[in-house]
Structure formats: C-alpha cells, structure tokens
Amino acid sequence: MKKISVNKNIIWSTAFVNELAANGLKFACISPGSRNTPLTLAFAKNKKIEKYVLIDERSSAFFALGLAKVKNEPVVLVSTSGTATAELYPAIIEAYKQRIPLIVCTADRAPGFFERGANQTINQQNIYANHIRFFWDMGMPQINAVKIKNVRKIAHKSIDISLYRNPGPIHLNFPFNKPFEPDAFTHQISNVINDIAQNKKSIIGSFAKNQEDFISYKKLFHNLIVTLNNFEKGIIIVGPENYMDGFHKKIVQLSEKLNYPVLADGASQLRFHTHSKKNIITNYDAFLRSEKFLKKHKPGIILHFGRTITSKGLEYYLAKIKCQKYLINEFGDIFDPSNNTTASLKYLPSMFCDEIINRLNKKHTESKWLNSFIRADIITEKIKNKIISKAKFPIESRVITEVIDLIPEGSNIMLSNSTPIRDFDYFASNTNKKITVFNNRGASGVDGIISTAMGITKRSKKPTVLIIGDIAFYYDLNGLLQTKKNSTPLTIILINNNGGGIFRILPISKYKNVFQKYFLTPHNLNFAELTKGFGVKHTLIKKWSHFRNSFNTAIKNKNIQVLELKTDSIQSLKIREQYWDKVRQTL
Length: 587
What we know:
By secondary structure, the chain is α/β, with parallel strands linked by helices.
C-alpha cells in the first residue's frame, strides 16, 4: 500500500479545520506566531473559511467578537503560545457574559517545557477557566485513524457547545513540537488516514439542536397566571438583547393584555424598527428620579426580559421597591444586581409572551396605572426636545439625538461603554427607523470597542456608526490597523472630554484634591495625528451644522472616518442635570 508523507502537526490541524468548515464555520481571526503555524496553515488552505490576520491578539479577539455578534455564529480565534493567550482574555470574558460563540484555539509547547525557562511558555491549561463554557487540551498529535477521528469529534463538539448546548466561548489548547513546515515530513500515512483528515464533509453528522428544550414550569406558570390576573399594577422591563424576530410585536401585545408599561432599554432594539411603539416607554430614567413619582408608582409584579438594564434611575427604583420579580431569558441567567428576583425562567421570550397572552383572562381596559407612565413619558419627551435636542455645541448628550436623526435606514450603531451607552439610554427616542444597536455590556469594559465595531461592520456589510469616548478610543487604537487591509463603512463619533468625564457623576468628584489627579487623568492627546498615522481620515467638528455635513459625507464615502467633538464634561453634566431637574419639577 502506497504511503503519503505528511507533517503530523499539519495533518492533525487539517482534520480539525475541515470538520469546523463542514459544520458551517465561516470566519477565523489569526494572529501571527511560530507555535501556531500548523493551525494557521490549515486555515489558510481551507477555502470555505474567510480569514482575517490581525497583529494584536487583543484586537483580534474583539474583532472576532464583533463578527460573531451580528448573526450569532461561531468565529475561531488562533493565537501562538505564551502571553499572547492572555491578550485574548478580555474579549473572552465579554463573549462569556453575552453568550457569544467563540472557539479559541491556542498553540502551546509540548508537555514538559513548562517551568524550564522555554521562551513563550506559560501554564495555558484552562487559563480562561472562569469565563468559558468548555475546555479541552488536544494533546500531542497522534497519527492514526482513531485519533484523527477524535480531533474531528472535538471540532464538531466545539460548535455544538458554543452555539447550541451552552452558548459562549470555548477553549482548545493545541500543544505542538517542531517541525511546523509543510515539507518537513514526520510521518507516512495510508490513504485511509489521509481521507479522514482531508474529508470536506462532516464525519460526525448534524447537531441535535435543543433551543426549545426548555424546563417545564407548569406549577410556576399556573401561579404566575393567577398572580398576573390579580395585579393591576405591574411593569415589563426589556433589557439589552438581540431578540428573535416577532418578539417586538408580541411584547406590545402582552403589554396591552396586562395594561403594563414596557420600559425599553436603549439597547433592547424595541425603540427602533417599524413595529408598534404603543406602551413602550423610553424616558423612564428621568422620571424615575422623581421621589414623588416613585412613591405613587409601586408595582406588585415585574416581568424582566433580557439582560441587565443600563439605566441608573431604573436600577435605583428597583432597589427601593419590594414586589414579585420574574426574569425571562433563553438560558435562565440571572440579570438582577438588586438581588430581589422571585424566579428566573428559562424560556424563549417570544414563547413566554405567547404562553401568557393565550392563558391570561384579563381583558384590555382603560388603566390609570398604565396611562400615568405614558403621560410621564410624553411630558419628559417634550422637556428632552427643549433642553437636549436644542443644546448648544458641543454638549455631549445632543450627539445622540443628532445621530439618530441623521443615520440611514438599515444601519448599525455600536455603543461604547462609559458615557455613550448611558446617554443613548437616556436620550434615544422611539423611531420607525430600522437601526440595529450593538454593545459590549457583558462586562462593560472600555477595551476593544473599535475592534468590535470593525468586526460588526465587516460581517454585516452595513453602514455602522460607533459612538465612543476618548479613553475607550485610546485603549483600542490598534483596532484601526484593520483599515489598511479592509475598506470598512465605519463612522466613528469620538467624544473627547479629555479624561474620565463619567467620574464627575460619582461622589468622589467632591474631593478636588484627588479627583483631578487620580480619576479625571487628562491626557491631552492629539487624536488627529494619531488617527492619520493609521491612514484614517479625521475631522475636528466645529459646530452642529458642520457635524451634520461631515456625518453625511462620511456615510456616503463607505470607509472609516473619525469625527471628533471636543467637549466640556462639566457643561455637559450641567445640561443633563438641568434636564433631570426640570422633569422632577414638572412631574
């Protein structure tokens, strides 16, 4: 029988990659290194997988996160050994918190090299233990039919776990010994073994998709229906999430059936698209800051869909009231910092709405409770239009209303953490525009924001607007490196208040002797020169009309541009406080 000469590391990696591709994997993000050469060559050879090469492992991981977010499809990350693996960790944490499917493949030295002074060698065994859904050490390549099949089984299992069984990031550690080059043959194998590795079809089969295999809550559901029939005063909260099609319509139907207001987070998607906005409340953060409103509006029950809410006003409200509170999400995760949950229900939100609507005996009637929230929302919206939408340049909060007014149909908005996502939650109003909102609110870090936005833009192929502060922009300047390789329709709105302006809302701001030095940390960076160094066009905005013209031009050009607004965080905070005070006085 004729034998085929192979490199054991490459045939091992090829079997793994072919099984991933056979099961629908489309994207891989690779950072250059020596130890990961076998994996890199295997991915390079597979034409079904689109590859992105990013020098910085941290940026690569967040770019992969962005790719995966758009359609909730697994993306592979490939890194070399050593501290390179640690650079992936921030994005892995975010993926874990948001249940985004990433398949992290780290190359490693062979067993026995750890603690012997070998270069680029650290203990990589389950290094991400607290923030992954599955870990497997692949072991040293062994070239026989059973072992090659096992490699493909692990590849299949990786997609199964990360996408279906327990969504989120998984980690596979690949130890390799030299040589790594294709013509450095180490073994001779039969056609049978070669066919197992090279087969472009899955050798495992399809997945047992169990998205609807939810826990039965018959008794709890019965009690919940009785409770909902008895409570006239209730609230529906919809936190950040990319909900399945149909949920938007069903949540409005549920609200009508229960006569409960829907408090919709800015990142919940409910404030946008063409569905009915009836009973959808957007300005609750402002009017829930009113003590008088709080005293008169104490619900008996809360239904909370999705993730943790952004609003500090709502968080304060929830911490002060005592009532029954049910969390509803697909995996039964706990999103409740106030720690007063009655029960967490593992249920698809749209299916939950159907169950309640079909079983509930309540009839739609005029509701003073619901109308009081609607009236407060209308009053607050008018105040917002007078104070925020007409604020003088360059007040930070007005950026939100300007962007929503200007952004084209079918676009994406990526919100950086810190002030931008809070201002968006405060000031984004209901609109029929088709806008998809993205965020990194899993762990709420300011790292990797540009890279995530680049990944979102690349995968969605839609115009994307990133609203980001100066600290987060500085953190991820390396994300701009992708610009030279891939034209990207990304417009970056850089709100530069020269330091940690968000800290002005904290009590520590009263202590002037330490506040300026240890919290605000003014950097005085010249972002115009920095962005130009990456080959990115930069425009310093001078007034609102200049912003509108520059924004429209940037969107039409379909490449990456930075529009910088230099703002005063003190004046911007005064405008927010003026708005909140006016709402309190009026209500």
